[in-house]
Each structure stands twice: as C-alpha cells, then as structure tokens.
Amino acid sequence: IVAWVGSGLSRPAGLPSWSELRDRLCDVLEGKERELDGNGEKKQIAVAKVARQKKDLWAAFTILQRELGAATYCSTIREALVRAVKCPIPENYKLLWKLPLSGIFNLNLDRLATRAHGAVFPGRNVTEFNGKDAGQFAYILKGAAPFIVNLHGTAEDKASWVFTNDELKKLFRNQSYWKFVQACLIVKTILFIGISADDLAVRSHFEALKNEKIDFGEHYWLTDRTDKETDKWAEGAGVRIIAYHSGEDRHQEMEEFFEEIFRYTPEEQQTCPVTMSARIERPPALPDPDEIINEPEESIRRILNAHAADILEKHSEEAYGRYEEFCNKYDRAIYRAWYVTCDEPSNILLGYKLIEEIAEGAFGRVFKAKAPDGEEVAIKLLKQDIRRKPEMLQSFRRGVRSMGILSKHNVEGMILYRETSEIPTFVVMDLVDGPDLGRAVESGNLKDWTIIMRIAVDLAHIIRHAHLLPERVLHRDIRPSNIMLKNCFSDRDNFEVVVLDSS
What angle, 0 to 180 degrees and rounded to 10, lies between the N-to-C axes of helices 228-237 and 200-211? Predict the structure, then answer.
C-alpha cells in the first residue's frame, strides 16, 4: 500500500490547507499594497480578490507568486509551515505507518510524514526524496524499505516547490517522475487521504494510463465528498470511494477508519476433507458400526476410506455434511483405525509397511516405511486428538491443499506429500537422509559461518518462492524440526536444505 496524502492530513497540527494558504498569501498581497505609495493599490487589491476567488488553485498561486515578489512569497509560505517543525504529530500520520505502508506520496511541504515514521519506528531509516528526483530512486520499488516522496517539495528547499501552473508543467515534463508515479499506480494499491484525488496533479496520471488502455486495478480514496460528480469521476478512474461524514469530528472518523482496519481479521477459508489419491475398492455394502469394529484394523481402514472417497467424490456442502455424519456414525471404528505398530501383522497402514518409528513430537509420530512398490518413504501419523480439535483438522487440510499448490508449481526445497488420508490422519513423504536443523545444531556440526549463512539463504529462497506464487502459500510452522539437511551425513559439503509441512 502507498498512501497519497494532502494537506487535510496536516490540518490537526494547525497547518493551513492549500486554499487557506492561498488566502494567507492574498492577505499579504492586500496588506503590502496598502503600505505602498502610488496608484497601484486598487489594482493589486483587485488582483488579490481575483486570486482569492479562483477555484483553480494552480492559477491562483501563479498570480500570487508573480504579484507578491519572490522574497515575500517565499517567506510567507515558510512562516505558514514553520510550526510543523515542533508541533505534535497528527495521529492519522502515525496510524498510516502502522498499516503498514510501502511508502507515502506526500503533497505537503511540512515533512510531518517523515516525523511520524520516526515516532512509530524509532531508529529505523526511511528513504526520502523530492518528486523531481524520483528517477534516481526508482530502484526502491524492488525492495521492502519504506519511502517518502515529497512530490511537491519541502519547505526548506524552495527550488523543489510545486505550486504554480508552470511548476506543475515542469514536473510533468520530468519523465522519470512521471514513470515512477505510474509504476506505483500499476504495482501498488494507493490510498488517497486528505487530498482531492481528482486534482490535476493526480488526475493526469490516471488519464494517461487509461489512454494507454492499462488496467491498473483498484485504488481507494478516503473522502467526505459524496456528490454525484465526484462518484462519477472516481468510478471512471478506477478509484473506490471510502466516505466519511464531514464536520468538526471528521478527523475522529478517520481514526475510526484505521481502527476498523486494525481490528479486521479475515476468516480462514474452510478446506475440504482429505481422501487418498489411490483408489481403494469399495465393498458392495458398508457394514453397520457394530459389525465393522470386529474387523482387523487394516480392513477397517480400507472400508472406511473407500466409502469416504465415495461420499466426497463431488465437492459440495452437501457432501461435506454427509461426510461429517459418516464420521460421527463410525466414530468407534475410526478410533480403531488409528492403531498401528511396527510389528506384524499390525504394521500395514493402507498398503504401506511400517518398519520403524524414527521420531515423535507433540502432534504425532514419524515412521520409516515401505510403499507398495517397495520404495522407502516417511509416514507422519498425527495423534487422534486432531479428530476432536477442528482448528487442528483445518490446519492439516490446509497443509494438504498448500502442498498441492507447491507440487503444481514445482517449488524446489519442499518435501511434498505423496499420499494423504484422514482415517487415520497421516501423510506420506520422501524419506530424507539427514538430520533436522535442531539435531544438527545440538550435535555441534554447524559452527562454520559459511555453512550457517548458506542454510539461512537457501531457507529464505524456498520460503520466498512459495510466498511469490499466485496462490501465495505461507508456511505457518517454520522451526528447526521442520528444516532438514538432506544428505548431510553422506556429503557434508553438498547437502540440500529442504522444508517440511507447509500449512
């Protein structure tokens, strides 16, 4: 998100809006002419009146700059903004940085946005530059470091000011500035606040992109303007209006807008139940619950999984409801389906032969096993508690879905699921020859900083690749036991960092 802010955000600090600054300049022009001798008094007062009545503020400042003279014009503007150096920072500036933001397009000369960043993030740097210099900082859009672009300059640097028609035209002729702003409109989400988004300085960028038939998505405008003309412009420009009531408490309403955003927590997307990809032949009839519990555990597993797959053949709310009823009805049989050992004949888990238990954690056990084709694999069997804890079951299903996404995109460095089941809840994965990161650290084998940095970089690359997918897969359980050093025992210099269990 990039916030595009105007003078409305600085008014709680006692700073003038753009129109109020114009009026102050007009007052100075009228007062100046009254102090001078000669016949120009009435003319200059008339000029000030024209400037005061101008709706086009660019034209008004053009007149005032010409008539006041460079020294008076400059000093009047700086005097109007001087309190920004020490005044309390308006709360909405701080709330903006807490969103968090990629950056701020600042139309104000007061640099309160910069002070607010320092207040919210003490000691952290923010890259700050003027609009005319934007081309020199285009690289910053590739990174995550925050930035502030003072589009129309800062109070300290008069050469950076953009108030008049000529100054705006000069800025628009600066192709690096133009391209920087348009790049942000295309790749960032813009929140306009304390600003008239239909002003020429903003509107021109939208019009240029529209003329080139570039679809840049939606942007948002927090405003108290609710007239039809404003709505028509916003709809045509691709800007969604977030309206609030005007009045003395409008700044309070802005704060409430931020509070609602901070309170918002998106609902977890419900994931569908998991069934085995390998088809199990379904018996002609499903035994009654009292009959099936007398079957051997492997038979129970095969019968229940076959019927579960049949129920869930079509993904629908109705099918999910039938599946839940099925699980409740056969609760005792499902309980028995969890029983496995590494001793024959109870070491067969839906066709996989358990050889030995190689790890145990808070959520389950991991076995070395043989697949039906004879290949050695790892099986992670979750504890029965998952059946009684919906949040854990949803996490498992979410992990299965995420692994399917990673598999589709061939993300390297993730140990993908070969097979999954909910009755009982387990996953089949490649068997990794090597320790997890926790064991490797405890053994004292990771003391070389070159190896430590290599592991960190490889791990970051794997996670970033998953984050950059269109589906944006987030690993919610990065910890040493889920980071494996593949082939570390056999080839210590050429091991591979791999990650388990993405949910």
Answer: 40
